[in-house]
């Protein structure tokens, strides 16, 4: 009888364990992520670097979808320079049940409504490219930032000019007055990146014992056409006095090049340095129109945006090669690009 009872007990135990396992498996199947909806709002879809970054994000989403079998929807909308429009776009993402929202802020000082909307719905939000104030990012435990190391590109621009002066001083200091006459093309009034890039580029040159003379500056809002328009006027005013043009991004630098090409004054084109390492910018470096640029890693940042959104939705860890600091920030370093190494960076975009 004891043996029969023991057998019956064992059978019952096995049945219970199987049932529990079945329940657990059913629960896992029920909670399995089948689709991820990512809403993205960019400050301006016509910004060349942002457009390239979005292409990288979409490409990484397709690759991740193929690897995991999870459907990944990336919905990108253009705020067209309007913070009010961007606020409305984020509200629609929240109301339509998107899993993660990514925002390239129009106004980096005004993220309050966006953070409040995401927080009220418990939706993670990833800011990118335009860094908000740290105090704002800390307000919400599911708010993150993906971008680059802010001070690096200005320093790199300054270093490239210093290196060229050491190697070929006569090609830069055309009037041989031991002073560099320069024009600064600034991205946007009051914008953190424009201020920092401008300051660090000039300071790096001065700290290397080189005298500079600022002929003038122009705000061209990161835009190629505006860069050309502003340089047309500056060339009229200063002509061959301009020895260096320091541009806060490649697009404005390309606008400056356009101004010289249209005037058929390529023999007088000054040393021009940009920032971003866009394909058009890199091509200008290869062709000798632009001396150098600071490559902003759109490939790495696009991948990090996708991987972070994926991890936030699925609860999985980030890949080991993506490093997050302060549990908030993912940053990529810039790289100096001149004609000597430009092919390496062009190949990234091909």
Which residue ranges are poorly predicted, with pLDDT under 50 across at least 5 consecutive positions?
A: 13-30
Radius of gyration over all CA atoms, rounded: 26 Å
Amino- and carboxy-terminal Cα gap: 78 Å
Q: What do we call the CATH homologous superfamily of the largest domain?
A: Response regulator
Which H/E pattern describes the elements?
Answer: HEHEHEHEHEHHEHEHEHEHEHEEH
Mean pLDDT: 91
Secondary-structure class: alpha/beta
Total E-strand runs:
12
CATH fold annotation of the largest domain: Rossmann fold
CATH class of the largest domain: Alpha Beta
GO cellular component, one term: cell envelope
Keywords: Metal-binding, Signal
Subunit structure: The ABC transporter complex is composed of one ATP-binding protein (MglA), two transmembrane proteins (MglC) and a solute-binding protein (MglB).
Subcellular location: Cell envelope
Describe the structure.
The chain has 350 residues and is an alpha/beta fold. The chain has two domains: 36-147 and 298-332, 3-Layer(aba) Sandwich (Rossmann fold); 152-295, 3-Layer(aba) Sandwich (Rossmann fold), CATH 3.40.50.2300. It has 13 helices and twelve strands. The protein has helices at 2-31, 48-68, 83-95, 112-121, 134-137, 152-167, 169-172, 192-207, 224-238, 250-262, 279-287, 298-314, 342-346; strands at residues 35-42, 71-78, 100-103, 125-128, 143-148, 179-186, 211-219, 244-247, 271-276, 292-295, 329-332, 335-338. The strands form two sheets. The protein has a six-stranded parallel beta sheet with strand order 2-1-3-4-5-11, with helices on both faces. It has a six-stranded mixed beta sheet with strand order 7-6-8-9-10-12, sandwiched between helices. Strand 4, helix 5 (134-137) and strand 5 (143-148) form a beta-alpha-beta unit. Helix 2 (48-68) crosses helix 12 and helix 3 runs parallel beside helix 4 (112-121). The longest helix is centred in the first third of the chain and has 30 residues, at 2-31. The model is unreliable at 13-30 (pLDDT under 50).
